[in-house]
Amino acid sequence: MSQNKSLPTTIALGVARGGLEIRQFMRQRESVVFTLAFPIILLAIFGSVFKTTLAEGVTFSQYFVAGMIASGLVNTGFQQLAITIPMEREFGSLKRLRGTPMHVASYFIGKSILVFVSMAIQVLLLLAGGMIFFGVQLPTDPYKWLTFTWLIVLGSAASTALGIAFSTVPKSGRGASAVVSPVVIVLQFFSGVFFVFTDLPGWMQQVAAIFPLKWMTQGMRSVFLPDSFALREVAGTWETERTFLILMAWLIAGIFLSIRTFKWSRD
């Protein structure tokens, strides 16, 4: 009976923790601006500078929005958590939480809720800004919206799990940003966020294919770009099924590493 009650309690505590995480995040104006507004700023810069047409019906802004949405999954999930958790650990916040009845799974659920809400707001802002200022076209095929939905859910979950797992790498909260941010920036350049992926050197493409961001960007391109553009991908197709399997594998790996390596304190 106690085991039957523990799961609902863990979920309820996780949901409550998620609400608290959102309120705390909204009070940090710098984090809100950087997390939510920074992608819009990049869209404004790149959309204004690069006005070329990559293919019939594909402007650079259309291509860039797909990449920025995928990149947002990594920014709000992996990067944000891999930086903030070490800070919480250093300030003793996690150690105090450890002294409460809250299970570690509830903590993970709370962080997942924060990431998903932040990502949803960011996507809405990107799509609205792209449509209003740069003529970005939204897909009309319901299948593409289905693909978009599972990419958001699976991508957010994988990024969250990997961010929690990577949070043990920085030795201190103060140095977390210096450790995490370069990793994300390099992956963004390698994964076709800022440039057409097939225009990158072959070795960059091979390195990028190891990591989930490349598959998230490719998946988002399959949603926002016409199917004819798939011929410009490395495999000549969107590889939707392969994208799903690779992201699922990274999610499982992230959950496993999070459970095995997560630390409540620096000790």
Automatic annotation (TrEMBL):
One of its GO terms (biological process) is response to antibiotic. Its main location: membrane. It comes from the Bacteria. The keyword Iron does not apply. It is a multi-pass membrane protein. The chain crosses the membrane at residues 32-50, 62-83, 104-133, 145-166, 178-197, 244-262. GO terms for molecular function: ABC-type transporter activity. Keywords: Antibiotic resistance, Cell membrane, Membrane, Transmembrane, Transmembrane helix, Transport. One of its GO terms (cellular component) is ATP-binding cassette (ABC) transporter complex. The keyword Membrane applies. PROSITE patterns: ABC_TM2. It holds the Pfam family ABC2_membrane. It is found in: Cell membrane; Membrane. Belongs to the ABC-2 integral membrane protein family. This is Transport permease protein. It comes from Candidatus Planktophila limnetica.
